[in-house]
Each structure stands twice: as C-alpha cells, then as structure tokens.
Design a protein that fits this description.
It is a single chain. By secondary structure, the chain is an alpha/beta fold. The chain has one domain: NAD(P)-binding Rossmann-like Domain (Rossmann fold, 3-Layer(aba) Sandwich), CATH 3.40.50. Helix content is 44%, strand content 14%. A seven-stranded parallel β-sheet has the order 3-2-1-4-5-6-7, with helices on both faces. The termini are far apart. The model has no long low-confidence stretch (mean pLDDT 95). Bound molecules: NADP nicotinamide-adenine-dinucleotide phosphate (NAP). The site of NADP nicotinamide-adenine-dinucleotide phosphate (NAP) has 30 residues, from helix 3 and helix 6.
C-alpha cells in the first residue's frame, strides 16, 4: 500500500495499525476532573483511572474528594484532591496548577463541576444567573485556558467539557442553566478551532437524565420518572458508569481525529425529539 493511503507520512509507522485496546489506554497520562467529588465527575474520574490514568479530582469539599482520591489509589493510580471553587478565576487556575505540581503534567481535563436550579424565567435574579453562569460557563472556560497553557508546552492534550440536553432543547424554568450549557458547546467549538494547531482537542459530552444529587428532586417524582422512561428510546435513565465509554474514548488516542464535537449520551432522548 502506498504512503498516500496508509497515512504513514502523517501518523508515523505506529499510527496505522494501532486500533484495539491500546488505543483506549490512558496509561502514563495525567487527568484533572473538576466536580470529581461526586456524581458524574466521580464516575468519570474512576473510569479514567481504570483506563490507566493518574487523576486529580477537584471541587470545594475536601472530605468527599479525599474519599474519591482513595478509591483511585486503590485502583493502583496516583491521585490528589484539589480543593478550589471553580466559579472564581483564581480557583479554576489553582485546579490546574495543583494538578501539575502533584502529578507532574497534564494530558486530560474533564470539566464536570456544575450547578443547576430551576426557576421560572420571570423570577430569575441576578444572583441566581451569576451563580449558575459563573460555575458552569466561566469556570469551564478558565479551567480550559489554564489547562491549554500547560498542554501547549507539552505538545497537546484532550479537554472534555460537560454540556447537557439543555444545549440542544428548550425546557421551561431552566434559562440560566440552558444559557450556560449552550455556551459550553459554543466555547468548545471555538477552542477546538483555535487550539487544534497546538495539538489540543476539545469536545463535549452532553448527558441526558442521570441519577445524581443534581437530579434527586426530579427522580423523586413518580409521574416525571414514568414520563421520562417513555421519552427515552433505550427505556431508562443514565448512571454515571454510562459515561465511562464516551469519556475514555474522548480522552484517549482512539479519538485522535475528533475535535469540536458534542456526543450526546442520553439513551436516544435528543434524537427522538419531534422537530
Ligand atoms: P452533582 O452530583 O450535583 O455534582 C456536581 C459537582 O460539581 C460536585 O462534584 C460539586 O462538588 C461540583 N461543584 C459544584 N459547584 C462547584 C464549584 N463552585 N467549584 C467546584 N466544584 C463545584 O451533579 P452531576 O449530576 O454530577 O453534574 C455534573 C455535571 O454534569 C454538571 O455540569 C451538570 O450540569 C452536568 N449534567 C448532569 C446531568 C444529570 O442528569 N445529572 C445531565 C446533564 C448534564 P462540591 O459540591 O464537592 O464542591
């Protein structure tokens, strides 16, 4: 086969036949997961560790973070708990700085820290707007910025932002949250375009309805839950483990030619919405 087809010129000799398990391996990589203390962030942190990465977990709650860091160490990986508030720019930057100080470098970032509060749009206050946007959108951007400064020096990396169904559909009482998550998709596309030449890939996972602290109120309503199961083609809600595959894929070389994308992990919810 000639060099034109094989991709050898661009990818090197190893690039062509590297499909299979090795492509999904994160051995030797260092990851930072914001919101790693519980819920989806914790699930993703453990999935990355199982795939071979050392993982820093960051949030505001030291006790919960230390517990997750302990679980990661039990898997035979290194881990560190970083206590910081992502809604403050200095907190976002410190998450990256303390990860690299403790674990030596940074290859993967997952921005899973997030908040939500339902409120009719006519009653949304400036405080509620700032609370949600500062955590979900400003925090995500400044973690990306601090991480990319490190990754640029290291020759590349993978950033995974957590979007939502609300990036793609309008659901009443969720205006600030939807604005933040549509913003996350917008900034992901811009950063993918801007940082691709630096070898930094930036993608989104958009989860559907998952059982976590954030959605406890919804899942405690039996009518809502019955309706949800009818609306999801795969017939059930998501669990943090359901994000493992997409997260490891986007973090690893298996997705080396994928950037600027949104992967909905939602049991088919978005695809089946009437347009
Ligand atoms: P969760 O269980 O409520 O966890 C939220 C995480 O964010 C916690 O680790 C929390 O840590 C952290 N966090 C919140 N504010 C923070 C701040 N200011 N600084 C640092 N960390 C902060 O929620 P989840 O369901 O796992 O949600 C994780 C992400 O997925 C969010 O972005 C959410 O919008 C998104 N999402 C969730 C669903 C779902 O169905 N659950 C669906 C779509 C998207 P501490 O409290 O320890 O600081």
């Amino acid at each position: 086969m000639g060099a034109y087809w094989s991709g050898e010129e661009a990818l090197g000799k190893g690039g062509r036949n590297s499909a299979g398990e090795a492509m999904f391996s994160l051995a030797g990589k260092v990851a930072l997961v914001t919101g790693g203390s519980r819920g989806l962030g914790r699930g993703i942190a453990l999935a990355l560790a199982r795939a071979g990465a050392d993982v820093a977990v960051a949030s505001r709650n030291r006790a919960a973070l230390e517990e997750v860091a302990g679980e990661i160490r039990e898997l035979g990986r290194r881990s560190v708990a970083v206590v910081a508030d992502v809604s403050r720019v200095d907190g976002a930057k410190r998450m990256v700085k303390e990860t690299t100080s403790a674990l030596g470098k940074l290859d993967i970032v997952v921005n899973a820290a997030g908040v939500n509060q339902r409120c009719p749009s006519l009653e949304v206050t400036e405080e509620l707007w700032d609370f949600i946007l500062d955590t979900n959108l400003k925090g995500t951007f400044f973690v990306c910025q601090a991480a990319a400064a490190v990754m640029r020096e290291e020759g590349g990396g993978s950033i995974i932002n957590i979007a939502s169904l609300l990036s793609g559909v309008g659901i009443p009482t969720l205006a600030p949250y939807a604005a933040s998550k549509a913003g996350v998709v917008g900034l992901t596309r811009v950063l993918a375009a801007e940082w691709g030449p630096l070898g930094i890939r930036v993608n989104c996972i958009a989860p559907g309805y998952f059982r976590t602290d954030m959605t406890k109120g919804l899942f405690s309503d039996p009518d809502w839950y019955a309706r949800l199961k009818r609306q999801v083609p795969l017939g059930r809600e998501g669990y943090p483990e359901d994000l493992a595959g997409a997260a490891v894929f986007l973090a690893s070389d298996a997705s080396r030619y994928v950037t600027g994308q949104v992967i909905y992990v939602d049991g088919g919810f978005i695809a089946s919405r009437e347009k």
